[in-house]
Amino acid sequence: MVDPSVAIFGPLDTLVAPYLEYAILALAVLNFVSRRIAHAQHVTQAADGPEALSRHWFHSFTTWGLVITTLYYLTLHHHAGMVLSVLVLGVFFADFFEFEARKVEARDGRSLERPKGALVAATFMLLYVAYLSLFFIVKPLWTQVV
């Protein structure tokens, strides 16, 4: 729960804070789904030529949603928010450069590879978000050991 004395956005923090980690987890999972859909679209578009490649709206939505919600999470939980923000911004930049790499592959007439760098970055981000939001599952075992 958010301490009301440090709530930057006032009542919004009190209403949204308990559910924000789950919203970020849902966006992270949706980002993987949208990544698969976008890659399939890129492969189809590459057959029409390199200039036909465009960003998929659903993938852009989930990526920007992750960036915005993570930056908001940073105002609520500073340490975890900073780590998560770095991971999400890493995914954002990896996606940006992976899309440009797909355009180069299409220009050179090569088959499009999967965005491996962005997949690795997104996997680390998903693991950390899952740790933050689902820690209550392992908390009883964790407290016995640590």
Automatic annotation (TrEMBL):
Keyword tags? Membrane, Transmembrane, Transmembrane helix
Which Pfam families does the record associate with it? Answer: DUF7313
* Domain of life the protein comes from: Archaea
Entry keyword annotation includes Transmembrane: yes
- Ranges annotated as spanning the membrane: 19-37, 57-74, 80-97, 118-138
Record-linked InterPro entries:
DUF7313
Domain called DUF7313: residue spans? 5-146
Q: What is this protein called?
A: DUF7313 domain-containing protein
